Amino acid sequence: MTAVLSVGLNHFLVLSALLFAIGLLTVATRRNAVAILMGVELILNAAALNFVAFSNYVEGAVGGQVFAVFIIVMAAAEAAIALAIVLAIFRHFRTIDSNETATLNN
Amino acid sequence: MTLDNIASMKYFAPELILSIGILAILTVDLIVGKPDRKRSSLLAMSTLVLALLATLVTSDGVSRGLFGGLIARDPFTDFFKLLFIATTAFVGVAALRSRDTIEYQPGEYQDKESGEFYALTLTAAIGMMLMAAATDLLMAFLSLELVSILSYILAGFKRRDRKSSEASLKYVIYGGVASGVMLYGMSLLYGLAGSTSLSAIHAIKDPPLLTLIAAITLCFAGFGYKIASVPFHMWCPDVYEGAPTPVTAFLSVGPKAAGFALLIRFFHGAIPADVRSVPLILGLIAAATMTLGNLAAINQTNIKRLLAYSSIAHAGYILLGLVAGNDDGQRAILLYLVTYLFMNLGAFLVVMAMSDAGLGEELSEYRGLGKRAAFPALVMAICLFSLTGLPPFAGFFGKFYLFAALLSRGGTFNTALALIGILNSAVSLYYYARILRAMYFEKPTNEAPILEASLHRWNMGIMAAVTMGLWLAWTPLVDFAGASIVQWYPHATQVASLH
User: Region B12-32: what's the mean pLDDT?
Assistant: First the structure.
């Protein structure tokens, strides 16, 4: 019974794969710029979770945990820049819907 | 050999000098209180010259790993350091006279952001140098993000311009997704190798092939986005059109070259040679990239958009060198990036000079430019001939080496790819000729001559002269590029003994 109940690497991998998929889906379907950025955060967290999970199973290695910390810091930096850009967009367009801000022709 | 943190400092001097220069630019603006773009650009240029000297002085042809093997200092990084310093310097000088990097407010002239522009471009230069030096997934990710975040800000530099803000939003969203997908791929690679160092990935024994290919493909999302290859190219035309022209020129050369540097290191150093499907995937991406770039360019009416699609097509050509996968292919990529720097920057400099003289960015505005502004039109013609790949311009030699490297590998697939490349060059002649026809054979709506700033004239002259005369120095350049492909990877000896 203990083998069934214990949490192994696979559980983490499945969870992170789900997070990754939800993140991609959010990015693909949402039209609100802030919601898209939330999807990006989900993708980044999926990767960070993978790093921490793998790191637990590599003997004596902290590389994965260090990587996860860097991902968190970088996500914060990117969010700061992205939200500043969203603010600039709102000033021009009075909306942050990514359909209505598309004026550059395709 | 791998150096510890203290010993690494000497070989990290170019980046350190750039960091000091960036702080100096910002601090001087704060202390003096009155921003002045001449002063900021002078500081930036002297920083770049010092960084160039530091690169030359500390470069001795020996390959070293710095900071315990996170980044490398080898002839390969030195080659790219010179390339990035040159790009940043040319763009920085051009931006000095560009209206696009000045903030205008109704009724008054404001120059308060000039220092920031130079600080941002120099920081991006550091990021690109680190991208070319990264030998560890962590450094690859961090340097790529450094360049990306700086690029987002630069693309939106004209804060009061709708198009600029929109370009910046598109860039940040595409960029965020691409780097997230790349990170997920990197986490899978870490799981397979148990380490983030590129050589550990190279040394993976009997990898589960499907997982490895999936991880590599996910990683390619990040690199492919930086070089604007299909299917990660969608941001490129919008960002190039909306961003201030000096920034567009910078993005089309610098980060693209840095992306290729990272790609070379990743695919030559980290991917085990027995993964046969990698050249196949890369080859298909290259073919799709150049075909889509060239076909989409045909219908463009905005000159910056047209050049954006042209730069996508060129990313496809350069990928061919990676498909070849040998030293010849790598050398051909380095050579092409040098020729691309001059011909592409030259074309964008003409656009920049013209828009500063009051001309719009639509192709129709370029009618009769041969009469109205003879010299810029001539420079544009030279750069376009070179981008097409006609002899004796630099682009011809660059393309010749790329196709030759691919053809020398033999095989139906490689030959077919080279043929697609040559066909694509013929297609590209069509839309480049549209610009030439507008400039020389169509009647202008307005006959008034256009006077470009003398600074732009000098800058364009350099680009045109190098594009035309590079064949004179071709042999030393080939030798230099050939000597620059020697690469250093952490624990390279261990990897060798494992195989």
Answer: 93
